[in-house]
């Protein structure tokens, strides 16, 4: 239900072109948002590495070396894909003692059409879904706008965030009927994708198609992938998510800029809610700014 409301809200945001509201969000809040997102993604993967066995540590080290080293040799095939395939084969051949995907969850395609209607009469559930759905849509809108800014600079191609929001909204509504989770653009993953050579929307189409095909045809193989390798890939993406403007931005005005960035990060990490940090700090920023301006006059 939350995914359905998220998709519907995204469509409304896109039609009303509310994506442009990202321009009123202070830069310090945006930077804090990006860094908090990177911290959350990074910390979520550490449990698959620490504490662990010597074998797992070895897999992690080799995976990092391959991910960062292979692009210097060739960019024809994404280094994370090569790393996942090679390390999975090595783990299987030598029966290495490392946690696999199947130890956490099975990968299978189970279309449960219109599962959302099982609880359509539950008002309390709809109310809860409304709160989370709108929050997810806000976070998605922010991430879409940030991703657009980054990719437009990298590819030198101007994109339409409103159209992106409407398209994602439609996709999330369809996903909700199938019992799936909502999704949005990710700065770190998108930047990583461009670095691997995916500079057009065709790469997004291929990614989605290959993912669906892999789950349907290669589910039994995907569960053999070592979690340490996947964690390594996601940690690499997490590092790409951190905003490289942070230090330079804080140096411009250490107290004001530093407090804005840190407060945004702290609220997001404490509440575990990306939208909460952005909304609260943005409101506080303009409230304080308004008070200072009145005192100055």
Describe the protein in words:
The structure is a single chain. With 297 residues, the protein is mainly α. 70% of the residues lie in helices and 0% in strands. It has helices spanning 2-15, 27-46, 54-69, 79-93, 123-155, 161-177, 187-195, 201-217, 219-222, 227-241, 246-252, 254-271, 274-296. The radius of gyration is 21 Å and the shape is globular. Keywords: Membrane, Transmembrane, Transmembrane helix. The chain crosses the membrane at residues 24-42, 54-71, 77-96, 125-146, 166-187, 225-242, 263-288. It is a multi-pass membrane protein.
Topology:
Blueprint: H1 2-15, H2 27-46, H3 54-69, H4 79-93, H5 123-155, H6 161-177, H7 187-195, H8 201-217, H9 219-222, H10 227-241, H11 246-252, H12 254-271, H13 274-296
Helix pairs in contact: 1-5, 1-6, 2-10, 2-12, 2-13, 3-4, 3-10, 5-7, 7-10, 11-12, 12-13
Keywords: Membrane, Transmembrane, Transmembrane helix
Protein name: SLC26A/SulP transporter domain-containing protein
Organism: Staphylococcus gallinarum
N to C succession of SSEs = HHHHHHHHHHHHH
Compute the average pLDDT. 85
Largest sheet: none
**Low-pLDDT segments, ≥5 res:** none
Number of strands: 0
- Termini separation comes to 49 Å
The oligomeric status of these chains comes to: single chain
Shape summary: globular
Helix content bin: over 70%
Protein name: SLC26A/SulP transporter domain-containing protein
Subcellular location: Membrane
Main location: membrane
Membrane topology: Multi-pass membrane protein
Features:
297 residues; mainly alpha; 13 helices; globular; SLC26A/SulP transporter domain-containing protein; Membrane-Transporter-like; transmembrane; membrane
